[in-house]
Amino acid sequence: MNVLITGAAGGLGRAFAVECAKRGYNLLLTDINEAGLLSIREGLERRYGSRVLIMPLDITQSAGLEKLFCFAREAGFRIDMLVNVAGGDAEGAFLERDGATIARLVRLNVVAALEATHSALEARNPDIPFYVVFVSSLASMYPMPYKAAYAASKRFLLDFSLALRQELADRNVHVTTLCPAGLATTRQAMAGMAVQGFMGSATANSLEIITKRTLDKVLRGRFLYIPGLINKLMYAASRFIPRPLIARLIHRRWGRARERAGAR
């Protein structure tokens, strides 16, 4: 199995790379962080003996993606699975962020994932199974005040992946979407979880467990994976609550969390 992972130098991308290497998969890793990619490649090759190719690039640039797939062809790396991890967050009130930051968030979370997926599907071998993984978020299930652009971008991925799965069901293409809650991937993410108190820790997920179970579900043809019993129950309950009420409740909860954190 040859796997392309975007955002591979981050916490979740690195965890996916490690899990794939454990399974004996060959890897093509990309991220804007070249030093991180070099470190991951050295560790995976030394420990697991996998073939690991790396290409640092800004995935929001179409020219960079073209170079990535050209590089894969020249290296004889036929992609069998694409794991769309690259993404960003923009926690905070909408007007607290400048327009350029929000636009980049959408380009990274949505446009880059679409372009990478389209290119990978065009380059696939139609005679063998091909797998696409999207990393969405539990936030995609709800309208999220103070995370409005982020949640909406992840909702796009969730809905798009379901539609794409149906389109390509008879073409040997399998699409799976991961919707985790809190992930301890960055200091900002951990700080955001801490502000939420008990719920922040109760809904958090282990990177190692998530990546292992995600790949298991991908290979079994599952569409959606929501890690954690509490998160599954929250999702199930939310389906019976009007979305405007959900937005009001989340606004109240996050507003109080911001007050505790000293936000203005």
Structure description:
53% of the residues lie in helices and 13% in strands. The protein has 264 residues and is of the alpha/beta class. The protein has a 7-stranded parallel sheet, with helices on both faces. Strand 4, helix 4 and strand 5 form a beta-alpha-beta unit. The longest helix is centred in the middle third of the chain and has 25 residues. It is globular and about 50 Å long. The protein starts with a strand and ends with a helix.
What is the topology?
Elements lengths: L1 E5 L4 H12 L3 E6 L2 H15 L3 E5 L5 H13 L6 E4 L14 H25 L6 E6 L12 H20 L5 E6 L8 H9 L2 H5 L4 H13 L4 E2 L3 H10 L4 H18 L4
**Overall number of strands:** 7
Query: What is the total number of structural domains?
Result: 1
How are the strands of the largest sheet arranged? Answer: 3-2-1-4-5-6-7
Molecular shape: globular
Q: Briefly, what is this?
A:
The protein is an alpha/beta fold and 264 residues long.
What would the keywords be for this entry?
10 helices; 264 residues; Rossmann fold; alpha/beta; 7-stranded parallel β-sheet
